[in-house]
Write a structure and sequence with these properties.
It is built from nine helices and 15 strands. By secondary structure, the chain is an alpha+beta fold. The strands form three sheets. Strands 1, 2, 3, 4, 6, 7, 8, 10 and 11 form a nine-stranded antiparallel sheet that branches. A four-stranded antiparallel sheet has the order 9-5-12-15.
């Protein structure tokens, strides 16, 4: 039944694509080169620590979890990392100037905010419209995405990525692709296919796709970490009148050692379960 469902799904997409061959026109998204957001790990931790007890309770954290958050000492963790040798830090992706900053942390009575930001890892997530086809039978939108960490973050539990969209668009699982690059230092060791994990998020009426993944693989002292990833999926709307779509993207970085991250999709919005700090969700509107 699952195989037949996939075949039917693929036929529906191909039928729409082929039916557009004679009348289709390509949509030119003038000036759009892809949307992206970059967030610093230190900012993520600072934002959650600065929330009051009452605010964290309202978000769903219990007392034990709130105490854990308040006890997080990101600066101390950065100082521990600074004890690595120059060459070890280079392998983790730090530049010469960043290594000098890390090595200088103990010299400050109060470390300037700028130094902490420049010493911390950043992740950038990008999504782009690779192509769109529209005719009287409907609309097909091809979406690509990627993300990349500048260095290995301090917290390496589970992370997640999610996308959601508005309107009557659906995503056929046959069009979904996703992969993650696992690295030692910054050298990619293996690229792992996560397409099935992303497909598992698709169900009737769902306006989103995404997946969570382990940031660390292997057994210490030899471990690999999820440095970057990429993928694509296709949205289809069988109503010509639906001539725009809003697309939301979000990256989640967990600060607790949780087994998996729950993802909830709106139209368009994404939320992760508690214990996961996020690169701010952003929503783009595409008109055609």
């Amino acid at each position: 039944r699952i195989k037949m469902k996939k075949i039917i799904s693929l036929i529906m997409v191909l039928t729409l694509l082929f039916s557009m061959t004679s009348f289709a026109y390509s949509v030119d998204f003038e000036g759009i080169t892809g949307s992206h957001v970059t967030v610093n790990e230190y900012e993520m931790i600072k934002n959650v620590k600065n929330r009051s007890f009452a605010e964290l309770e309202k978000l769903g954290y219990d007392e034990t979890e709130i105490n854990h958050i308040k006890d997080l000492n990101y600066i101390q963790e950065l100082k521990k990392r600074s004890n690595n040798s120059y060459h070890e830090l280079l392998k983790l992706g730090y530049t010469d100037s960043q290594i000098k900053l890390l090595k200088s942390l103990d010299s400050y009575d109060v470390i300037p905010e700028e130094v902490l930001l420049l010493s911390s890892a950043e992740v950038t997530i990008i999504h782009d419209v690779d192509g769109t086809t529209v005719n009287s039978n409907g609309t097909v939108i091809n979406i690509s995405f990627s993300w990349n960490w500048t260095q290995k973050p301090i917290f390496t539990f589970n992370d997640a990525v999610g996308f959601s969209w508005s309107g009557d668009y659906i995503c056929h699982e046959d069009t979904v692709q996703a992969e993650i690059d696992y690295a030692i230092g910054t050298s990619i060791i293996e690229t792992v296919d996560f397409s099935d994990d992303m497909i598992g998020e698709i169900s009737p009426g769902t306006n989103g796709v995404g997946f969570d993944f382990n940031m660390i693989r292997g057994v210490p002292p030899v471990t690999e970490w999820a440095k970057s990833g990429r993928g694509s999926f296709t949205l289809v709307c069988y109503e010509h009148e639906h001539n725009n779509v809003q697309l939301a993207a979000k990256y989640g970085h967990s600060i607790f050692n949780i087994s998996s991250i729950g993802i909830t999709y709106g139209a368009p919005s994404i939320s992760f379960e508690i214990g996961v700090e996020t690169a701010d969700s952003y929503v783009d509107t595409y008109n055609f």
